[in-house]
User: Fold this.
Amino acid sequence: MEVWEIMVPTVSNDGKPFRLRHHREWDKQVNRISNGMTILTPCKGQWIDLLTNSLYNERMIPVRIVCDRKQIIQIMKITQRHYNQIDVLAIKISSEALFLSNI
Assistant:
């Protein structure tokens, strides 16, 4: 398993904030795939749409997920559909994840 970070938008393409209920639905879908995530504090993000050369400034929510490459691609597709995004970014931040359990 690997540790990935995906950037989740806080507002729609027209600038309307996503409601907590909308984020929680995404959480449920991701949890079904990865069995958990760590949601970090929102931060400022900027990116350029290469097709239109438009600069986007928006707050993003970094979310860390332990899963494999196939699963993160599935999560990226869900994210793109759920939030109606042009692009979705996921970064592999670790090639190994260890769990210690009392089971």
In short: Helices lie at 20-34, 69-82. The two ends are 19 Å apart (CA to CA). Residues 69 and 94 are 12 Å apart (CA to CA).
